[in-house]
Amino acid sequence: MSAIQDVYTIINERLATQIRNIDSIDTKTSYLMGFTGVILTIVLGRNGSGHLWLYLWGLVLEVVALITFAFALRTRKFKEVDVFKVMEVYNNDNAAKSSPDLIYRKVTGYVLAAFKNNENVIVRKADLMTSGLSLMV
């Protein structure tokens, strides 16, 4: 039983690391949004005479980058799982008490699904952030 709890402790730590990664990406996205806002303010403060099409093109790209960063911040459908609480729920289930192996299979499946979901959120956020950064440059 102790080995299984050690495994679930490691899983909890990995899930917490994923959540920290998501928060880190959000922080970087917020900084980039602020920087984009500063650039947008500078662009709006300049007179676009002479190169109007270039001015408008830059303005559109900055606005689209800002919107992309906003979508990256909005993507927050991650799952935070406390494995020991989930195990406790299954341990209190009379049907599951008869089969501890069933408990661990269900908990493992639930945790793996949460882990995969969080990985997808991280990839989505990173893709949106990269797209916004590409539009800025």
| Whole-angstrom Rg | 23 Å
Number of strands: 0
SS-based class: mainly alpha
How large is the share of residues in beta strands? under 5%
The biggest sheet, with number of strands, parallel, antiparallel or mixed sense and barrel status, is:
none
Which regions are unreliable across 5 or more consecutive residues at pLDDT < 50? Answer: none
Shape: rod-shaped
In helices, the fraction of residues equals over 70%
H-E string: HHHHH
What's the helix count?
Answer: 5
Average pLDDT level: 76
> What distance lies between the first and last C-alpha atoms, to the nearest angstrom?
54 Å
Sequence-ordered SSE layout with sheet pairings:
Elements: H1 2-45, H2 52-74, H3 83-92, H4 94-97, H5 100-136
Helix pairs in contact: 1-2, 1-5, 2-5, 3-5
Describe the model.
- It is built from 5 helices and no strands.
- The radius of gyration is 23 Å and the shape is rod-shaped.
- The N and C termini lie far apart (about 55 Å).
